[in-house]
Amino acid sequence: MENNHVSSLEINLKSLSSNLDYFKAKIHKSTKIMVVLKAVGYGSDAIILANALKDEVHYLAVAYADEGIALRNAGIRLPILVLHPQLVNLQKLIDFDLEPSIYASHILEAFLDLAETNNLKKYPIHLKLNTGLNRLGFLYKELNAHISALKASNNIKIQSVFSHLAASEDLNEKKFTQDQIDNFISESNDLIHQLDGKPPMRHMLNTSGIINYAARAQFDMVRLGIGLFGFGNDNYETSQLENVLCLKSIISQIHSIEKNQTVGYNRAFVSDKLMRTATIPIGHADGIFRNLGNGKGYVYIQNQKAPIIGNVCMDMIMVDVSSITCNEGDEVLIYKDKEHIIKLATAMNTIPYELITAISNRIKRVIKKY
Predict the structure, then answer these.
(1) According to the model, what pLDDT value does residue 2 have?
(2) Which CATH superfamily is domain 245-368 in?
(3) pTM for this one?
């Protein structure tokens, strides 16, 4: 279906490539890169990104099976790791040549049965170790109980062993992170020794991990996600990265508001003087959080800040343009750049991930190549 929404998310592929090169420079040339495209490519467009990066990286990762299936249906042939497969989707993973993260006994046992039923030969799986995040993954003593079954099966092969850091961006937690790395090294070494075959790849580092721990823990592969979009979870690193996303809209209507008039639902804003407001066709159904209203958030019009006034509506916001010379139809930058996104996230007491992954699918995606 054609998307005629006037609001659009601009995705700069040149900047995306530049950010990828920035992280490549932090690791060995032999270290593989897995790009994480979960949540529709961090709220952008996973298919656009996969096509842009398919010749530059070695692996893709998604959270759930349907995200991987969408990439396969779009013709993406790179290996794809599904980080959080569910029992009901395991057969679909096989049908679409997707590689499961095996994080618990019930998933392992079910997949081994399915692999045998489907007469698979050395189908790649990835074993996840829980080294301290306590979200998904085997404790090593739990995985030990399955070593015999893993060695006996000719239906699967262990493509990688991996784990996930809990606080890689927080240098106050450096000791905890170092302990996680130590545990992963010890446990994966023991696992590889017990498997007594071709060693699987190992990977542990996310974006912040690449920045802070590449010297010690890049192993065979790293996983790059938010860093591609210009966010380094560190002020200096973020400043070195290029802006990839820009969310735009237009002014639908301009109003003159008399003193003591109200704007928006619940009359949340009351004018204290004569003023002008602009109504913009984007709202909380598009991912503009309601608590950015009432002066907490702002947009850019004619390169000037225009505070959001009143409550954010489902499909619209109203902003104060009293001091801005503008007209109906003029461009509005909802998220101008990564710095703007960071400031809005800070005002909401959250992180940029939450803002960008919330951008609705009804917002048109526009590719920028320069």
Answers:
(1) 64
(2) Lyase, Ornithine Decarboxylase; Chain A, domain 1 (2.40.37.10)
(3) 0.95
